[in-house]
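Researcher: I'm preparing a figure for a lab meeting and need a structural model of a single chain. I don't have an experimental structure, so a prediction will have to do for now. The sequence is pasted below. Please return the structure as tokens so I can convert it later.
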Amino acid sequence: MKSRSRYNKADDHILLPMIRDICDQRPSNGYRRVTAHLNRNLQANNLILKQVNHKRIYRIMKQNDLLLTRSEPLQNDRTHEGKVIVSESNMRWCSDGFEIKCWNGEKVRVVFSLDCCDREIMSYAVTTAGISSEMVCDVLVQSMERR
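Model: Understood. Here is the structure written out token by token.
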């Protein structure tokens, strides 16, 4: 059985040198940015081709080994075992915020701080307006004063 040959459009040989030129000028750009630059160049020079699809550019770049290589994810030294609770009070605190939508359409927003040992709420602030950084700072200051 005969194997399939590579798929090529008629104008691929015209696009390849332009793609190589863009890749040489901007080696960190992926195929989508290369497509944007290529389409901008084609429009500025009023060439025969109007716009080129990013899937076509991906295919051409893949066939010619011009795609960026995927980077390896960074290894994290600090793996989390899932233990948040501590054995003594005042060793670790946490804070968070949430909002509750009321039946009348208003939203109540709450910011609070907890002691991770006994999960006691040390301080909180409630508002129907947005949560500001001042509110969060006030909650943390109140927590420090109470402890």
